Amino acid sequence: MRVLWNEMKKILTWKMLVLLIFINSVLYFLLIEFYIENFPNGSGIYSYEMGIEMIEKYGTTMDEEEFFDFKKAYANQVEEATQYLQSREEFVEVGLDTYEEFLAYDWWNAPQEIDELRSDVFINEKVDLFWELQERESLIRFYEGRETIPHVLSEKKRQRFEELIAQEKFGVYPEVVMMNFKSFIANVAIAILFSVVLVISPTIVKDRTRQVVAIQYTTRKGRNLFKTKFLAGSNATFILITALLIVYFSLYSLNNTSMYFDVRVNTFIANESWFDPTFFQFILLCVAGIYIIGLVFGLLSMVFSSLVPNMVSLIGIQIPFVVGFLLIGLYPLVPHMISIWNPKWLALIAYSVMILLTLVGAIMLWKREKKMDIVL
Question: pTM (2 decimals)?
Answer without folding.
Answer: 0.89
